[in-house]
Amino acid sequence: xxxxxxxxxxxxxxxxxxxxxxxxxxxxxxxxxxxxxxxxxxxxxxxxxxxxxxxxxxxxxxxxxxxxxxxxxxxxxxxxxxxxxxxxxxxxxxxxxxxxxxxxxxxxxxxxxxxxxxxxxxxxxxxxxxxxxxxxxxxxxxxxxxxxxxxxxxxxxxxxxxxxxxxxxxxxxxxxxxxxxxxxxxxxxxxxxxxxxxxxxxxxxxxxxxxxxxxxxxxxxxxxxxxxxxxx
Length: 232
Hints:
The chain has a domain of 106 residues. The protein is built from nine helices and no strands. Helix 2 packs antiparallel against helix 3 and helix 6 packs antiparallel against helix 7. It is flat, with a radius of gyration of 20 Å. The relative contact order is 0.11. Its cofactor is Mg(2+).
């Protein structure tokens, strides 16, 4: 029962993310910018503190946009008439989003501006000494894109059903990462088998169709393959 409740809690949380992404234009813009920033950050030699600042900034913008949406929905539930306090609440929430957006611009300027003149060199630089950063960013990009596609198709729930299969996308993203980072054929083969087992379990349980897991698998594999080919 506890496991089911925990699973439901995660599912409801992802439903909130998808609802905001589906209904709020600004949220879609934030997601697109987040994906682009995460992708291009791979080509910059970011320190740990700079990487943390980027992740916190992205999270802050997305969180404030979700809080703004929840406040607007709550006020609209309570009343459909104009009220000065309702206006203040919505304006304050929108102001919080604006501050977080301005903060993201400032952080982006501080972190990336002095590195732009080295872009051509960084673009071809092979970051072999920081493979975990590449894996982590690749997974985040795959997850963001999978959630975005789920929001577009409006099928299933975040953790169950829908196009594409997020589990398949993540499992094949991890498989491609292992294939690049490991020189051991046995490890690569085992990683591929595990990815196939994840896909097979989604089909056997009736959570996803064959097409959904195929699209998810290709999505995760191709995105990760593209990223690793660019930086390796």
